[in-house]
Amino acid sequence: KSKPDKRIILGCQKAARGEIIQMRPQFMKAATGVFVILSFVPLSEFLDISSVDMMKGPDESNKKQHRTAMFNSDYLIVRRGQEFQVRISFNRPYKPATDTFAVEFVIGSSPQYSKGTYIPVFPTKERQSSWEGRVVDAADLTVTMGVTPAANCIVGKYHMYVAVKTPFGIRRTRWDKSQDLYVLFNPWGPDDAVFLDDESERQECVMTEMGIIYHGSYDDIAERNWNYGQFNYGVLDACLYIMDRSDMPITNRGDPMKVTRKASAMLNSRDDDGVLVGNWSGDYTYGVAPTSWTGSTDILLTYASSKMPVSFAQCWVYAAVFNTFLRCLGIPSRVVTNFFSAHDNDGNLKTDIILDESGRIDRVRTRDTIWNYHCWNECYMSRPDLPTGFGGWQVVDATPQETSDGMYRCGPASVQAIKHGHICFPFDAAFVFAEVNSDVVFYTRSKDGSLEPVKVNRTHVGRMVLTKTPGDVTRRDITDQYKFPEGSTEERTVLEKAEQYGCGRDKSDLPEADVDLVLPAMEISVGDDFELSLEFVNRSGERRTVDAYINGSVVYYTGVTSSEFLFSNPTVTIEPNKSEKGVLICFLTGGNLKKGDAELRFCVLQVLIPGNSSLTWTEYFIPQRAGSSRLMASLDCPALRQVYGTAPVTIGDRSL
Fold first, then answer.
1. What is the C-alpha to C-alpha distance for residues 271 and 278, in angstroms, rounded to an integer?
2. For residues 219 and 524, what is the distance between their CA atoms, to the nearest angstrom?
3. Per-residue pLDDT averaged across 195-200, rounded?
């Protein structure tokens, strides 16, 4: 026709806008070309989608059954390997014999069926994909569709569409962000790699938001409360952003081994602009002191919004934020503290302490250190890459200590492999083995550079490993999960096995010393004066003359020396089977103060707090949910770190 029918023009305009139109094509060849003549068919003739209900309310079945109701999110969040339901309304009753439709899920920028990033789910048994589908209920115009994601599917955020087959092609709903959904790991799913068959452990290591991190020293253990906040608004998106930022292939994000290994690198900023900047210098001018953080939420949201690493962190901050990441994605995890933790810098599985001729530690040549404590994470998963029996708890560590495969990361390393000396197993089992089993070897260095061992301590490292007790606020000693009792037959067998894999133990047969030096245990408050009294005990039947080297240094918990304030080399004579005790030095903590130095300055509250005074502060907030929790507060002040406190609180429904 010289002038197209108005219906054709209207139909073409709708098609150009992406709208669904009903047409029956008839072709007619004319001298001037080929034209398509369209005639409209009633919409009721074919199945059409009216609306989709994701059933995502906090009180609806999906979030309750998938244990995701605590997430502060408007989206549907489900766990893989477990059915969830979607309610679809059509323009007419669904006829299984003649109607064909599918619910489609896509993830990533280039969805492909072969890569598991495009998944069509069908309602009939005759046609199924990797995700199972079924019609749960069909009434009037509504069909309730049950969808079960594969137990090994990709974890992340999916777009969902509903597609209907017609004689003229596929009609598909447009993308609607309200129909997006998140799929997480499922520790309740028997077929999931992170399945944990212990409900008390699942509640603690997946669902619990408030935790306790242990620090201090072996004989003076302190507690630090932490709000993991894995269900807080924006945290799930921040965790997924971390994987996006790492350029992790979307197809790897269903494997907990690959996810945790990549995340252990991304939680620190050393080589990939990851989440946290480490700082052990004591100068936190351009960031937040590690001791000031009380939770993970601010850190993760700041990183996701600024796209820049957050300052600053030390080992417990890395472990706490990593714990949030793991629990948020559904991987069971806990923070673990190892007291007297060895940092084996050169990979010889020994901690080498080199002394110069004066008795001082040679800080240039001594690269290994022993931390008063070190925090890492354990996460629970199967290990199909290892022999049977080495799944379960795995060590992962985000603190940047040493590189692994070219990046600052550690793990996952099987705890069972560490306990039984299989230090060749991936990943980084040898490094973690040294952290809990390393021999401490002291050497004297002569003028010609030769080293001579003078003392070997085989029981100092890995003195105790602690984590929080599930469902309680007490600590749980899990040292026996990492090592057999010191001196036992099993321990000797493990060490012999480790030697076969390259563990370099020192077998020097050194004479046993018959003079002991006893250092007193003292509890000293800030600002107090104190005396250091040493006792020399002669256990021999002869008089002994001891040339002692006494060194006093300010040392960080990582074993790194800040400054030396004392060096003395007294000569002490001790009669047979006697002891000699005396005051070595008296420490006076007073001194001349400049004007104003008696006050704490630069507090977050931006007030001055005179000595021996108190401050009352009122803060208003809106709780997110009812139940028992803990209120935490910290004071950030350069003059006095680690000032914080906690109080238990119970929030009733009326408070919300």
1. 12
2. 14
3. 98
Residues carrying an active site annotation = 315, 374, 397
CB-CB contact of 318 with 267 (8 Å): yes
Residue among 374, 381, 438 nearest 414 (CA) = 381
What are residue 496's phi and psi, to 5 degrees?
-65, -40
Residue environment code for 565-580, b if the CB has 16+ CB neighbours within 10 A, otherwise e:
eeeeeeebebeeeeeb
Burial (CB count <10 Å: 0-12, 13-18, 19+), residue 465:
buried
Percentage of residues of the chain with pLDDT beyond 70: 86
Q: Is 491 annotated as a binding residue?
A: yes
Helix (H, G, I), strand (E, B) or coil at 427: coil
181-184/76-79 β-pairing: parallel
pLDDT digits (tens, 9 = 90+) for 606-619: 556 676 777 787 87
Query: How far from chain centre, in Å, is Cα 257?
Result: 13
Distance CA 377, CA 337 (A): 9
Characterize the bridge pairing of strands 464-468 and 475-477. Answer: antiparallel
User: Quick one: pLDDT band at residue 31, thresholds 50, 70, 90?
Assistant: very low
- Was 538 annotated as part of a binding site? no
Q: Would the annotation count 45 as a binding residue?
A: no
- If DSSP states are collapsed to H, E and C, what string results for 558-625? CCCEEEEEEEECCEEEECCCCEEEEEEEEECCCCCCCCCCCCECCCCCCCCECCCCCCCCCCCCCCCC
Q: What is the mean pLDDT of residues 413-425?
A: 96
Q: What is the DSSP letter of 459?
A: S
Distance between CA atoms of 373 and 214, rounded to whole angstroms? Answer: 9
Q: Flag the least confident range among 46-60, 281-295, 377-391, 527-541.
A: 527-541
Q: Identify any residues that bridge with 313 across adjacent strands, giving them in sequence order.
A: 278
Answer whether 420's CB lies under 8 Å from 500's CB.
no
| pLDDT tens digits along 392-409 | 999 999 999 999 999 999
For residues 311 and 277, the answer to whether their CB atoms sit within 8 Å is yes
Tokens 């630090």, residue located: 224
- Alpha-carbon span 150 to 129, nearest angstrom: 9
Any binding-site annotation on 564? no
Written as one letter, the residue type at 407 is: M
List the structure tokens of 467: 């984590």
Angle 219-223-228 (CA atoms, 0-180°, nearest 5)? 145
Structure tokens at 110: 């280039």
> Could you read off the pLDDT of 213-239 as tens digits, one per residue?
999 989 889 999 999 999 999 999 999
**pLDDT recorded at residue 519:** 78
Contacts of 285 (CB under 8 A, 6+ apart): none
- Position 44 scores a pLDDT of 59
Other C-beta atoms closer than 10 Å to the C-beta of 591 total 6
* Tokens of residue 566, six digits: 């004392």
The rounded percent of the chain whose pLDDT value lies above 90 is 57
- For residue 613, which amino acid is it? S
pLDDT in tens, 122-147: 999 989 999 999 999 999 999 999 99
Predicted confidence at residue 23, as pLDDT, reads 47
Residue pair 392/380 in contact (Cβ under 8 Å)? The answer is yes
CA nearest neighbour of 313 among 277, 283, 347: 277
**Per-residue confidence (pLDDT) for residue 363, from 0 to 100:** 78
Q: Average pLDDT of the chain?
A: 86
Q: What three-state secondary structure class fits 457? A: strand
| pLDDT (mean) for 433-457 | 87
Judge whether 231 and 70 are in contact, CB under 8 Å: yes
| Confidence label for 596 from pLDDT (cuts 50, 70 and 90) | very low
